[in-house]
Specification:
Elements (H helix, E strand, L loop, with lengths): L12 H7 L2 E5 L3 H10 L3 E4 L5 E4 L3 H10 L6 E5 L3 H9 L8
Antiparallel strand pairs: 1-3, 1-4, 2-3
């Protein structure tokens, strides 16, 4: 039985994608860095490449935490989610379903 469509979220596209930005963090000490970031209340996950993805923080915060922990960073970049990514996050649907 199909359910009726419902409004999940209403906002300008720029607002939706801006709120879904992540920091991509590259370090040879990912496990220790992830623990340090989580210890400061940040949300951290590893991506398919093994790099860390951090949400809810500015680059200078992540860089400072890494520095204070004595952990090297090889890369720190901000990435904004695509509209498609935001759709799947909001609806909980898998990307394979769209194929």
């Amino acid at each position: 039985m199909e359910t009726a469509p419902s409004l999940v979220r209403q906002a300008p596209v720029a607002g939706l994608t801006h709120e879904s930005r992540e920091l991509r963090v590259v370090s040879p000490e990912n496990e220790r860095l992830a623990a340090a970031l989580r210890g400061r209340g940040l949300t951290v996950r590893a991506d398919d490449d093994g790099d860390l993805r951090v949400t809810g923080a500015k680059p200078e915060i992540v860089g400072t935490i890494a520095f204070e922990a004595g952990l090297p960073l090889y890369g720190l970049s901000e990435e904004q989610a695509s509209l498609e990514d935001v759709f799947f996050q909001l609806t909980g649907e898998e990307e394979e379903a769209a194929s």
